[in-house]
User: Fold Cation/acetate symporter from Gracilibacillus kekensis.
Amino acid sequence: MSVEAITIILVLITFAIYTGIGWWSRVNDTSNFYVAGQGVPTVANGAAIAADWMSAASFISMAGLVAFLGYDGTIYLMGWTGGYVLLALLLAPYLRKFGKFTVPDFIGDRFYSSSARSVAAVATIFISLTYISGQMRGVGIVFSRYLQVDIVVGVLIGMAIVGFFALLGGMKGVTWTQAIQYFVIIIAFIIPAVAISLQLTGNPVPQLALTTSDIVDRLGQIQVDLGMTEYMAPFTDLSLLNVFMVTLALMAGTAGLPHVIVRFYTVKSVRAARWSAVWAIIFIGLLYLTAPAVGAFAKYNLIDTIADKPIEEVQSIEWVSKWETTGLLQLDDQNGDGVVNFTGGDDNEVVIDGDIIVLSTPEVANLAPFIIALVAAGGLAAALSTASGLLITMTSAVSHDIYYRIFNKTASEAQRLRVGRITLLIALGIAAYVGINPPGFAGEVVALAFGLGAASLFPVILLGIFDKRMNKEGAVAGIITGLSFTLIMIGAILSPSIIGTEEPILNSFFGINAQGVGVIGMLLNFIVSFIVSRMTPEPPSEIQQLIENVRAPELDEQPEQSVNEK
Assistant:
């Protein structure tokens, strides 16, 4: 049986399981649609958080970024893991104690303002749309390879499937589906990693094999011999400034991601939220500690397979011809010598999309067809789990935070769900377009969303919890400043891929790239929020008392109430 046939069978089996869970947990009320009725067990919620967190960027793209960027690619490991710890320890328990449905809900009630709620909802939409675009790219790559169709068709197929799962069960269905998807993701990542580690080093533990064998030294020497930079040489693709700024943007952005924060609202109590965070860190660590080894092993195998080989011989390799069909791998004998020149210079004859590294690695290593199919199923699970959560986050921002809480406070459950589902379909269309025309690797596109989160929501959430003097005027001014600045800078730096200009409007912001410029937006947000809040009236006394109660440890196990009930 062919790899494609095994892959389709395995994907259909996993999809049948997801569909069954979605049907079992289908909803017809907003509490279940938005926060799963706040009844998810901690271990299941931890797995769901991990699956939501380990998106296509983590499963498909992160090891590819490490493979192509080497040392510089580790910023994604440091930023995303450090940011999750920041979120879990500094913000999540307090937000859960506040007892709301969404991040805009928290901001609207904490700052007693429909305007604050509105700008927070708009920021949520921008963040989520950017993030989900990377997921659609990941889904499209998997389908384009294993159905042997163009990437555009692959993204459209993925759009239909993602929409189906999100529409069916809301947050309740998404949460339980993600809990199952986590185990598909981690098994699909670990098994190939162990197999390739054994094949290359004789050591079944990838992390130990990476540090105790000479594989990195061999890879570094091969790259130098081919005219590339040494694999572990620092600051070759990214400057020291950008390494710092992107890492910080990823960390702070993590603590401002609405679709991750809402996960802590789906459990019964603050204690449960904390334990969910502990389980999620354990689950996430399994993949993140393995990704550097996968990236190095994949790069070594790829170079060893095609570099300096006769081009006809390389094109006759089955996996090469099939990836060429997708348009994500191209070989071009520019100098006509009949040999594949895989270099870092102008004479490079290999054009490879970094997002195919993880998916192609089992094929390059000649692993069993079942393992190849398992990786495809894992990639789909990673992209689908995060995309579904993002869609629910966007729909809640529009239907709950804008439509219901601002424009139609008498809207029925059915009306709010209808608005949410219409929003979901519109968001899917936009995300599919960006997935077809991405401004970078899936991981790089997702990093833009973290920059937007750092610049818009993180400062206001942090100050809203720990600064009683922070008021509605400061929150609104801060979000608008940080979000506007970051959107403009990202648009200017990435203008060729976003608006089609021949040259970028700006090459960088004083040396800071698009993925790191959110830090400047974050600093502007903090400064503007602080200054404006001190120049305008302080919050009402009941709001200040509310914040004192939210921060009080002795109230940790009391039943949570919404601010309206208080």
Summary: The beta strands are 329-331, 350-352. The CA atoms of residues 105 and 543 lie 15 Å apart. Confidence is low (pLDDT under 50) at residues 554-566. Residues 3-555 form a domain with the Sodium/glucose cotransporter fold (CATH 1.20.1730.10).
